[in-house]
Amino acid sequence: MMALARPLGADRRHLAFAAVALLGAIVGGATLRVVPTLASTATVIIPPAAAASLIAATSGEQLVHNRAVGEQARLINAAMPFSSAPISASRPFDLSNSDPLDRRRALLCMTQAVYYEAGFEPLQGRRAVAQVVLNRLRHPAFPKSVCGVVYQGARDPVCQFSFVCDGSLYRRPALGAWHEAEKIAAAAIDGYVEKSVGAATHYHADYVAPYWAPQLAKISQIGAHIFYRWPGAWGSTAAFTGRYVGEPYDPAALRPPLRQAILTDGSVIPAEDPALAGPPIPRAENDVGGLLDPSKGWTLNIPMPSDSAAATKSISQKQARPPEATKPVTLAARE
Predict the structure, then answer these.
(1) What domain count does the chain have?
(2) What distance in Å separates the CA atoms of residue 235 and residue 239, rounded to the nearest whole number?
(3) How does pLDDT run across 232-260, given as a tens digit for each residue?
(4) Statement: the pTM of the whole predicted model exceeds 0.85
(5) Is residue 209 part of a domain?
């Protein structure tokens, strides 16, 4: 389905760059800039239909449909083998000398992800969550900023990271754990690479067994989280062609309004006055560790101003256009 190919000739290379824009439309509106260089260039080929199929399998109702929860889920997860392919570490992502405003915003968003997703997990597990955020930023299927990745879907009824929508952001964090999360976030955006999760872009808690998991490559388990990458070449670092665009939006402006959270059993967590906030909301029984709120679903959206609405259509809207399944999309990736 996916493979590494030899560098293309000049004419075919131009076609490849045009095809990248097509894949950007298919996988959620991300704009990719691919620098045409002759040296150190790998080519990742994936048919648009295959990309759309992978995204569909890990989004919406498919994403929130679990095979099991609790001990049965742990047994299913333990029986699924880890990928035998070598784990290739991502390149460092370094904002240490970037625009100060971009760095402050990225640091806050990354700290929130580390704290609310894995604030009391082992150190390596917290670092792994930060690495997933950076891996998503570089992959064509996700937004191209730290805050864009963390807040993806925040203005919709669904969120990529459940803490964004479940009210956790309106509750005071535990100060000590927050400071530790901030240190981990700072290291991640200043060049630290958590090699144990390689090119992972997905994870879930070990007490749920989502239907999408067997379609991805299982890489590692750290604490309560199991980490995955896309299958084949699309899950390799060669596919990380996305270019960081900075942090154009204030995280406070991306935060959704406080609202009631409806759990999968139908119970309701009432919206609270932030002034009365306490510890973070406990996760639902079948929470899948940062990809979503299980009661809502998932789309490849990032909130934008109204003048950018055309760039923020959901994947379901984009898939209304029939993909050219017979023509492979070529991504030229610099390693």
Answers:
(1) 1
(2) 7
(3) 999 999 999 999 999 999 999 999 887 65
(4) no
(5) yes
